Amino acid sequence: MIEAMFSIENLIEIVKAGGKVKTGVDVYNEKGILLLEKNIVVDKIKPLHILQQNGVLSVPVNSHADGGLWDGKGNLIRVGSDGQIEFVPPLTLKKSNAPALVSDYRTDSDIEKRLLEIQTIKKEAVQQYDAAKKCLQKAFQQVRETQGQFDVQEVESRVSKLVDFSVAADHPFPYLNREIFFYDDYLYRHSTNVCALATAVLHRFNTHFSHTIDNFLSENKADISGGGWGGDEAHSASFVYYYGEDLNEISLGFFLYDIGKAMVPETLLNKTSRLTDKEFEIMKRHSFDYGARVLEANGIRSCVLNNIVRYHHAPLFENEEGCYPLDKASSDIPLYVRICKLADIYDAMTSKRSYNDALNQVGAVTQLFRKYVKKDPMLQFVLRAFVKSVGLYPPGSIVYLKNGQMAYVLESNGPLVITFTDDKKNTLGAKPDPIDLGRPGLDELLKIDMERSVKTPKEVYRILPRYIKNIATPI
Ligand SMILES: [Fe+2]
Ligand SMILES: [Fe+2]
Questions:
Q1: 266-303: per-residue pLDDT in tens?
Q2: Does residue 355 sit in the same domain as residue 412?
Q3: Alpha carbon of 178 to ligand 1 centroid (Å)
Q4: Which of 341, 344, 328 is nearest to 232 (CA)?
Q5: Taking ligand 1, which is a single-atom ion, which protein residues have CB atoms under 5 Å away?
């Protein structure tokens, strides 16, 4: 096939099912205005709707000019001259989440290449993260000054950049180190973390687990009444898959979930001692009352955003204590709201606050499991997506081995590490070979010491060997 016409309706179906289209030809409306550029890969419905609104009902797809049509699994969809559709499987590329092999690191330059790659992603992540944090800070300021309004468009475009980068780089935010911060800063960092993390979890959940869950649900139909997975149109035992544009909307919700806090007096927000009952009542209002009002003041009627803002402190299981508001049964809280709540709790547990020392990732996930996941078997799927997303040992992080050596993580699968100190924290002179810590039968002493974690990255920086230090500047 060089060029075939496809109806926009058909393309919408394909994109809805996770497919993509690149026309390979520029598409204009009748007034000669360019509606869709030939090199744009369309994986969202919106651009296709815009074509329809402009009276374009079908478009050519020119595979000769690098255009094409792909299904949700990445198979190229070809239409033969006889009109038959054939699927061409994609080339398999090594992705960062593919199992890492020690054999991928045969030479020093393989290691150097990987160190540089980790560093490049980190740098970009820092920039994206800072821009998002500043954008949220500005929005909070605007809400405070105007009693409710903020520049919604600016926030929307910032969140979509954050999400695009995060998905493309396979969720790199756990690579970033955490430091102590003041509450004012904490609020914006925390919301940015929650957005990046919850988006990663939902995205991974969508791509890895929705099918498993659908099977699970249909096998266990009799045991699951309601389920609450589909959110508003729930009460059918089926998992609702989220499409691209839903994800953007949900991520915007993850970013703005605590926006109601802009209406809480700052003296209360900054208070580090325990809140009185009366103060706590005011604080609670940031969700179902102030938050909902801020959305209204900005004309945001999205039910997704409303659910997240109102219910991110609602119970995850029946009779969970300290939750609010209680006007919805826990089983009716949509999945994306539950993920927001778990991300919120997880991030609070792993961030250092003046009155509460941070837990490491393993400790935090264990606590989440004990408190929440055990109560609801369905949440186990969420936790699996969670563990995969937060990456217990993200590339670029530093771990202690049981024999006392320190090691730098090259790949979270395994993980695959290079040791760089002896057991007394003396920097090793020679560059050791990578070790796959997931290899069966590995010496017990070479396993990760989960009791010990690196608390202050800057201190470690002093003992990093030059070949890592030159690339891995601390953040
Ligand atoms: Fe909140
Ligand atoms: Fe929070």
A1: 899 888 788 999 999 999 999 999 999 999 999 999 99
A2: no
A3: 21
A4: 328
A5: 258
